[in-house]
Prior knowledge:
This protein is of the alpha+beta class. It has helices at residues 31-38, 74-80; strands spanning 8-14, 17-23, 57-61, 88-90, 104-107. A hairpin with a 2-residue loop joins strand 1 (8-14) and strand 2.
Amino acid sequence: MAINRTPIHFTAYYEGEKHELQTYTYEYRSLMMLLFDKIYIDDFGECKGMGRCGTCAIKISGLSKAVHSLGRNEEQTLSKMGVHGGDIRLSCQILVDENLENSTVEIIGGESVE
Ligand code: FES
């Protein structure tokens, strides 16, 4: 299967700094891996994508289609963090695909809830 390398652009904010990022579909296993690689973020993604620690939390807006289905453990982890629904998500549960085009991501991170 051919890899679609059409550029995907989005903006990330971390500690008040703006990062214009570019990727392509499935360049990374998840949005968490992408953010971890492209921006140096302290204590981010501690459980390596299991959806348990909550340190990869982001606020995301402007997705081209809604991502309704929460990944495994995501709902439970967010609820331990006191978050219920809305645009706060675990970036390790979000795929890197064209849905990210023109979206805005604010890295919140947080204390591990494991
Ligand atoms: S990396 Fe731990 S919840 Fe996402």
